[in-house]
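Hi R.,

As promised on Friday, here is the backbone we talked about, encoded as structure tokens. Could you run it through your design pipeline when you get a chance and send me back a sequence?
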């Protein structure tokens, strides 16, 4: 069996007696990175904070040398992840800081579903009629969000309002994002389990989608680049590539990068660069 190198989202797959090829994204990749192992990534090695003047144990270009619990595919192949290039701007948490675990995504999604939310059948029926009103509400919501000083994070308590006239699934995604909005960035966080003390980019997106029942297991960025339907969605659009992922939910950006501090919100008011990302969306949304 091959070796594991700890990284953030693209597979390096080695088979019995085979050679390793970096940057591959294929069916073995998808199978290998599914969370079929037990363990926690909460104790992942600390990662660089030097760009923000925070305590750190490693320079930006250094990588961890100790592996987590191995991720092994059904055919015995070993997998590894590539570190997120946006990790330095995502405010990883120092080893000395302890954060409470998140509750389950389904519980987070239940917390703030507005009464009378549209069912899936109603969404299909009323989709065209709602387009104009939805566009106006998104514009109003964008203008109402004010960034926290020092970055592009949403100020206040870090959460965003949940409109009552959008599909229930989108409400639940927002509720899930709100539930972990101010959790620290921990590389690999949210992959061994949805319930963690911190989340990386794909762990964050996976958690929010799982709050609406759209995922039953976390996905890494490379997998999210092929998940769902191609192109932008009406309410949710996911941007993903080999190393990073984020999404637009009802006109607001949900991203680990660009925050103003380790505990500031994942909801942002400024549009990140969209170059070099696959564009996907949950079918029907």
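Update: got your reply. Pasting your designed sequence below so it's all in one thread:
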């Amino acid at each position: 069996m091959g070796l594991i190198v700890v990284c953030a989202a693209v597979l390096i797959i080695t088979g019995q007696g085979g050679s390793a090829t970096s940057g591959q994204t294929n069916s073995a990749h998808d199978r290998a990175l599914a969370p079929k192992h037990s363990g926690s990534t909460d104790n992942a090695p600390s990662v660089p904070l030097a760009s923000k003047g925070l305590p750190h144990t490693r320079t930006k270009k250094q990588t961890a040398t100790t592996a987590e619990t191995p991720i092994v595919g059904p055919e015995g192949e070993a997998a590894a992840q590539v570190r997120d290039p946006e990790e330095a701007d995502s405010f990883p948490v120092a080893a000395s800081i302890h954060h409470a675990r998140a509750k389950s995504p389904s519980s987070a999604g239940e917390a703030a579903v507005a009464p009378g939310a549209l069912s899936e059948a109603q969404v299909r029926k009323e989709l065209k009629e709602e387009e104009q009103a939805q566009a106006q509400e998104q514009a109003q919501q964008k203008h109402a969000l004010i960034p926290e000083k020092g970055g592009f994070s949403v100020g206040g308590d870090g959460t965003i309002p949940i409109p009552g006239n959008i599909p229930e699934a989108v409400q639940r995604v927002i509720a899930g994002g709100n539930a972990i909005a101010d959790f620290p960035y921990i590389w690999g966080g949210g992959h061994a389990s949805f319930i963690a003390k911190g989340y990386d980019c794909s762990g964050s997106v996976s958690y929010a989608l799982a709050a609406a029942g759209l995922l039953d297991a976390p996905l890494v960025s490379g997998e999210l680049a092929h998940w769902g339907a191609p192109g932008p969605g009406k309410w949710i659009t996911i941007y993903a590539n080999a190393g990073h992922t984020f999404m637009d939910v009802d006109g607001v950006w949900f991203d680990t990068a660009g925050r103003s501090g380790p505990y500031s919100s994942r909801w942002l008011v400024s549009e990140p660069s969209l170059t070099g990302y696959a564009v996907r969306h949950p079918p029907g949304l």
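One thing I noticed while checking it: The two ends are 41 Å apart (CA to CA).

Thanks again,
M.
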